[in-house]
Amino acid sequence: MDENQIMDSINKHCLMVNGKKQLQCAIAFKIAKEFNISVSTIGTLCNKNSIKIKNCQIGCF
């Protein structure tokens, strides 16, 4: 797993809302599938980089 590539993808899909980065939950799932990693890994990376995951469908975030 190349964390830089994953973060590039996350950052590419982030929205800026009130000066803070946000990532839609559905996109987090797509990125996890694309890189064959767990959704919780995406969550951990987002937390480390102050990115809020929004509109979670199943209560993961």
TrEMBL record:
- Name listed for the protein in its UniProt record: Uncharacterized protein
